[in-house]
Amino acid sequence: MPTSLSLRRRWAAGLAAHLALGVAGLLVAFPFLWMVLGSIKTGEEASAIPPALLPAVPQWRNYVDAWTSAPFPSYFLNSAVVAVSVTVLVVLSALLAGYAFGLLEFPGKSLLFVLYLATLMIPFEVVLIPNFLLINQLGWHNTYRAMIVPWGASAFSVFLVTQTYRALPRDFFEAAQLDGSGHWQFLWTVAAPLARPALATAGLFAFLGSWNSLLWPLLVTQNDRLRPIEVGLLYFLEAEGPRPHLLMAASTLAMIPILVLFFLAQRTFIEGVSAGVKG
Amino acid sequence: MTRNIRRPLLGLALLIAAGGLAGCLGATPASSPTSSGSTAGASSGGKTRLTFWHTRRRNQEKLLQEICADYNQASPNVEVVPEFQGSYDDLNKKVRLSVQSKSLPALTVAYEDQVAEYATNNALRPLDDLVSDPEIGLKAEELADLPEQYLRTNRYAQFKDQLLSFPFTKSNLVLYYNRSLLQKAGFSAPPQTWPEFEKQAAAVSRQIGKPAFAFDMDPSTLDGMIFSQGGEVISADGAHTTFDQSATVRMLDLLSRMKKAKTLAQAEPDDLPALFAGQSCAFVLGSSASRANLEELVGTKFDWDIAVIPHAEGVEPVTVMYGPNVCIFKASPEQEREAWKFIKHFISPEVTARWAQGTGYLPIRKSAVTRPEMAAFYEKNPRAKHVYDILPTTKGEPNVVGWREVRSHLQAAAQSVIGAGTAPQAAAVQLKKKADQALAQSR
Prior knowledge:
The complex is a heterodimer of chains A (279) and B (443). Chain A is mostly helical and 279 residues long. Helix content of chain A is 73%, strand content 0%. In chain B, strand 2, helix 2 (58-74) and strand 3 (78-84) form a beta-alpha-beta unit. The termini of chain B are far apart.
C-alpha cells in the first residue's frame, strides 16, 4: 500500500513534469502566438521597440488588407496544386520503393538502398544549379512541372516506409502468396493499408516542405501567375519599409491549411513517427 | 481522421493532384510561351517582348507597371513586361543561374558589383554606342543633364571603361536626426563633424537613458563613414583596397569609442525605422529611400529631419550614393535597341519626376527638379528636397569584380571592433589583407 510520502513524491514529480512540459510548450508555441498577435496590431504597434505583447485595439481588418494587397487567391491555388501534387507523387513513390526495399529480394538491394539514403546528405544548394539548368533544358521554366517533378520522390519517405515493411512478419507475404496473391494485389490490399501511418507521415512532410518552399519556386517561375504563397509573402518585405502587421496576417493565413491538415491527421502522423522510431 | 471527412478530403486532394499532374504534362495554360531558351525578346502578338527583372513591390511595383503600360501603349512594336524577382540577392542568384542556362531577361536592375560580375560572364550589352547613337542616343545636353557621378559609377575600368549599366533609381546615405530630442539636449542644429556628432550623441544618450545612435552594420554605411573621414576604400587602379589607411582606422575607432561610451547601439536594419519613430534613438544613418516610410511612422509625433552625414574636420561633406542601375543583356540587335529606348524613356525628365514622386528616390535628371510637379512635391515634402540637396556630396562605391566579398570582410571587421573589442588598427590591417585577397582571387 503506497505510503503518504510516496504519494506526495509522485504528485510532486507529476507536477514538476507538467510544469516543465507547460513551459516547453509555451516556448514552442510563443512564436506562433506572437505572429497571430502581430497580425492584429497596427503597423506602428507591430514595429514598436520595445514591443508590446497585445494590440491596443485588435485590427482584424489587417487580414482583409493582406488578402487584397496581392493576388493571394492565385498564390494559394498555386501552393495547393503544387503541394498536393508533390504529396501524391511522394506517397506513391515511397509506397512502391519502400515495398521493394522492405519486402523484396533482388541483387544489389543493400547497395541501392544505401545510395538512396546517401542523397539525404547532399544539401539543396549543391544540386540547385544542375537542377535549374536541367529544368531550362527541358523547357520547363515557368511551369508547374518545374515546381512539382523535382520533388516527386523523397529518400526520407522511402526510408520511413521501408522500415515499416521490414518490421512486418514475412508470414503475411507468404500467406498471401499461398492464396495466389501477386505483388500488385498484396501491395494494394495488404501492404498499403498496413503502412498508412508511415505514408501519412511521409505525405505530411512532403506537403509541409512543398507548401513552405520559397527559393526554388522563386527561381523557376517568372511571374505571379504561377507563384506560391511563400513567394507571395515577399510582397510585404521591402527595403524601404516592411509591413510587419500585414506580413503576420498573411503568414497566419498561409499557415491555416497546414494546421488543418495536421489536426485532421495528427493521430495517424504520431503513429507513423512512432513506428519509424520503433522500426 | 473520421471516415465522414476522409473521403471528401481524399477526393479533393486527388482532384487537385490531377490538375497539378495535368500541368506536369503540359496541358495547362500556365506554360509560358517563352519557357524554352532565352526569355529576353520573344514575340508576343507581333510585338518584341522585353522582360524586365526588378525588386520593387507594392506601390512601387504598381507605379513601375503603370510606367511600362504607358510606354507599351505608345510603342506599337514593343511590350516591356516588368517581373518581380525577390530581393537584390534573390535576383542576383537568379541572374547567375540564368546566365548559365542562357535564359536571361532583356533588362535587369543590379548594383555595380553585380554588374561587374555579369560582365565577367560576357553577358552584358555595353551601352556606349547606344548612348551615342544619332537616332536613339542621348544628345550632349541630355548627357549633361545627368549628375556626373551617376554616369561615372556605371563605367567599369576593369572592362575597358565601358558603360555597362545606366542609372535607374538612386538615393543617398543620409543622417536622420530627431530635432526635438536635440533641442531638449540644447542643440539647435544637427552635427556637421564627427566630434560634434559624438558630443551630441553623448548628451542625448544621457537625456533619454539609451544610446542615441542606432547603428546598422551596413557595408555601404561603413564606406560612407570612411569617405567622410577623408579616405578612400580602393586604390586608383582598383587593384587593392586602402583599408589600412588612417581614415578606416579613425572610422573604426569612432565606432569603438561610441560603443564603449554606450552612445551607440547596434541594430538590425529592419528595426531602425521603429527605433527612430519610437524615439529610442536620435540618430540613424541610412538610405534616403526610407524617408517616406519614416514620414508615415513618425507622423507628427516629433520634429525630425535629414542632413548630410557628419565629416571629419577639414574634410568636405561627402556621402555614399545608393540605388541600383539597369543593364541590358546581350540579345538580338533589335531587342537591344528597344531595351535601350525603354531606359531612355524611363530616365526622361517627365518619367523620372513621376518615379521620384511615387517612390521617394531621387530624379535621375537635373532638369526634372525644375518641373512644376517636382517643385510642388518638394514644397509639400521638404525633407525630400533636403535629400536632393545632398546629391552633390555623393560618391559611388567601387564597381570592381569581387567587391561583394570585400563588403562582407568590411562588415566583419567593424563587427569585431564593436562586438569583440578588437583594436581598430589591428582590425584595419586584417581587413586589408582579407579584402585584397578577395580582389586578387576574383580576377
